[in-house]
Design goal:
The protein is built from 4 helices and 6 strands. It is of the alpha/beta class. It is globular, with a radius of gyration of 12 Å. The longest helix has 16 residues. The strands form 2 sheets. It has a 4-stranded mixed beta sheet, with helices on one face. Strands 3-5 form a two-stranded parallel ribbon. The chain has a single domain, classed as STAS domain (Transcription Regulator spoIIAA, 2-Layer Sandwich), CATH 3.30.750. Pfam families: STAS_2. InterPro entries: MlaB-like_STAS, STAS_dom_sf. This is MlaB-like STAS domain-containing protein.
């Protein structure tokens, strides 16, 4: 999980991989960023993923919501967006105006 935080958009970048094996570390790193004020994640680097990525994104959204802020997931890979749609959580992780 990359620890890069964009000061302009207040987003951090996902790592290149977010699978069951890396989910716990990614979750923790993201929660730290959210508690420090991050309001979104940029998934541009994300190349390898499984359904665990969706669980992590939903947990990050809940954490941000608990802080009273909306959490944005941008540049979601098409394959992950399709997986979200298959699980019925696409409206939770995909912004409609960015639908693939």
């Amino acid at each position: 999980m990359s620890e890069v935080l964009s000061t302009v958009a207040n987003r951090f970048e996902s790592g290149a991989t977010l699978t069951h094996q890396s989910a716990k570390a990614a979750l923790s790193a993201g929660l730290q960023r959210i508690s420090a004020g991050a309001t979104g994640v940029d998934c541009t680097p994300l190349a390898q993923f499984d359904s665990s990525a969706l669980a992590v994104f939903l947990a990050w959204q809940r954490a941000a919501q608990a802080r009273g802020v909306k959490f944005e997931i941008v540049n979601l890979p098409a394959g992950l967006a399709s997986l979200a749609q298959a699980y019925g959580v696409d409206t939770l992780v995909c912004r409609p105006e960015l639908a693939l």
